[in-house]
């Protein structure tokens, strides 16, 4: 121990450019360290103690990074809040996390102000320094006159992310604090990136392609920083801008989702050829199954730098190296050395190789609880394994293949149908920009298969396109899996991390039914 961790690295080399904001502003490690230190001194004066919580409603960039770096060296839980939420949803998280301070960026003033009603006025702060927000104290109230020096009694804090909450309210995933020195704890975190073969030191740069309130984004970006990589932030994802930033900052690693791949591949050939991507080494993706042809096309373009994993906010998971995936196309990989997989039937009994069942995972030494909900914590456990409700199977080599989320499974005429399989086939059609498949009520069959398609630019939505898409499934999917009908939508409701909001699409079809699956 003793060579990694942001705070150590920043003291050794204060001039290192540790972060680049979406507008191109560069932040040196020494300046970020000084800001984080002042924040710790100020919040301690406000009465914060190890184990307390801090919430931030901030865009991607150095401002949110400073909150993260302050909390993680003072023993606090830092919760980055989803900026798409409404005031009452924000208030719920601020209150549920028992935050002792809430930081809001003027960009989210409207909902942030409503959300701040959940916390005492003296604990609300506008970020960054110089920002003014009615009803919030200026940041200088906390940091003004505070020393830049490293705080005493430093102890490792953690992030506490709220899961999107498939049922009921979102839950904070809370782990016990380690009591370790912050740099030592950060160095232990780098094990995760080590699994992918990622190395520490410069010149390395990590591109942050999604909002910082997602677990994986914080985890991969934060860990890359602790390994001495420069973080390059995007404000809003754009395919060509991604390529431009990769070339400009010599990006070596990033974290993406399959939707990003599909949109990158949709760029004109000459645009794709314009950019020098020779710096790419570890381009990691997750969050949704990636259609085999899409991933093959990315390998052809970017070479063997594409890694995939499967995990959850609660822990995980699996890893598919380029070689592993090519020898087992469609897999999400094998269990991490510190992880175990268990596939069980509805009675909790292990199923044979090749048989789909509910996926349970276990990560050594990674206990967690859903904050304030012991019942939910236990309900998703099987001994010391947990599940997020996904369905999949293991092959004879121990490679995991995902079928779908249990809650998304369609039961038609007694047969189990996995929407992801149908989506993957439709997604490869050149006239499809995005697709979602789900079950809608059918009095005869229980459920029938509905596809909703976002047409690619230039493709004309209508009965002719629907017929063409269905015809493309001939010989590739059993007829029982074909959508009965296809609807078209201008833009698919997705979270910026690529997660599809299927509930939004499904709800209108189930109105007035007692069972909205």
Automatic annotation (TrEMBL):
Question: Which parts of the sequence belong to the AMP-dependent synthetase/ligase domain?
Answer: 7-362
The lineage's top-level taxon is Bacteria
GO molecular function per UniProt: long-chain fatty acid-CoA ligase activity
User: Enzyme class, one word?
Assistant: ligase
Which EC number(s) does the record attach to this protein? 6.2.1.3
Q: Where is the AMP-binding enzyme C-terminal domain?
A: 421-499
Q: Which InterPro entries does the record match to this protein?
A: AMP-bd_C (IPR025110), AMP-bd_C_sf (IPR045851), AMP-binding_CS (IPR020845), AMP-dep_synth/lig_dom (IPR000873), ANL_N_sf (IPR042099)
Renumbered to this chain, region (Disordered) spans: 136-176
- In which family does this protein belong, per the annotation? Belongs to the ATP-dependent AMP-binding enzyme family.
Listed name of the protein: Long-chain acyl-CoA synthetase
Per the UniProt entry, what species is this protein from, by scientific name? Nonomuraea roseoviolacea subsp. carminata
């Amino acid at each position: 121990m003793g060579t990694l961790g942001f705070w150590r690295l920043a003291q050794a080399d204060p001039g290192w450019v540790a972060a680049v904001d979406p507008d191109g502003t560069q932040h040196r490690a020494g300046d970020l360290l000084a800001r984080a230190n002042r924040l710790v001194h100020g919040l301690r004066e406000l009465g914060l103690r190890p184990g307390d919580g801090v919430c931030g409603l901030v865009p991607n960039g150095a401002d949110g990074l400073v909150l993260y770096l302050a909390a993680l060296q003072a023993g606090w839980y830092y919760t980055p809040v989803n900026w798409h939420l409404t005031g009452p949803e924000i208030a719920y998280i601020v209150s549920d996390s028992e935050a002792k301070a809430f930081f809001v960026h003027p960009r989210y003033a409207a909902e942030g102000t409503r959300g701040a009603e959940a916390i005492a006025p003296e604990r609300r702060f506008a970020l960054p320094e110089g920002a003014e927000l009615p009803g919030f104290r200026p940041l200088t109230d906390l940091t003004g006159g505070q020393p830049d020096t490293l705080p005493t009694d430093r102890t490792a804090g953690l992030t506490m992310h709220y899961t999107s909450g498939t049922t009921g309210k979102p839950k904070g995933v809370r782990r016990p604090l380690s009591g370790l020195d912050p740099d030592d704890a950060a160095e232990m975190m780098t094990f995760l990136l080590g699994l992918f073969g990622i190395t520490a030191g410069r010149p390395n740069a990590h591109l942050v392609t999604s909002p910082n309130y997602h677990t994986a984004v914080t985890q991969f970006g934060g860990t890359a920083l602790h390994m001495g990589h420069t973080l390059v932030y995007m404000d809003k994802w754009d395919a060509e801008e991604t390529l431009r930033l990769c070339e400009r900052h010599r990006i070596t690693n990033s974290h993406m989702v399959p939707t990003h791949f599909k949109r990158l591949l949709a760029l004109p050939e000459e645009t794709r050829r314009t950019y020098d991507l020779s710096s790419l080494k570890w381009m990691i993706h997750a969050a949704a199954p990636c259609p085999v042809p899409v991933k093959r096309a990315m390998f052809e373009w970017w070479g063997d730098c594409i890694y995939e994993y499967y995990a959850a906010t609660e822990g995980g998971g699996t890893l598919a190296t380029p070689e592993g995936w090519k020898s087992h196309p469609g897999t999400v990989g094998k269990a991490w050395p510190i992880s175990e997989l268990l596939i069980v039937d509805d009675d909790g009994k292990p199923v044979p190789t090749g048989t789909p069942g509910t996926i349970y995972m276990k990560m050594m030494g990674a206990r967690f609880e859903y904050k304030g909900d012991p019942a939910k914590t236990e309900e998703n456990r099987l001994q010391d394994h947990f599940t997020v409700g996904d369905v999949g199977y293991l092959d004879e080599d121990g490679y995991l293949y995902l079928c779908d989320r249990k809650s998304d499974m369609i039961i038609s005429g007694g047969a189990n149908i996995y929407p992801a399989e149908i989506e993957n086939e439709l997604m490869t059609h050149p006239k499809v920009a995005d697709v979602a498949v789900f079950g809608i009520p059918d009095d005869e069959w229980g459920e029938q298969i509905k596809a909703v398609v976002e047409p690619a630019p230039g493709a004309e939505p209508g009965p002719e396109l629907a017929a063409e898409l269905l015809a493309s499934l001939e010989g590739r999917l059993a007829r029982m899996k074909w959508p009965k009908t296809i609807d078209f939508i201008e833009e698919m409701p997705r979270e910026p991390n690529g997660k599809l909001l299927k509930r939004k699409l499904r709800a209108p079809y189930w109105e007035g039914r007692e069972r909205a699956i």
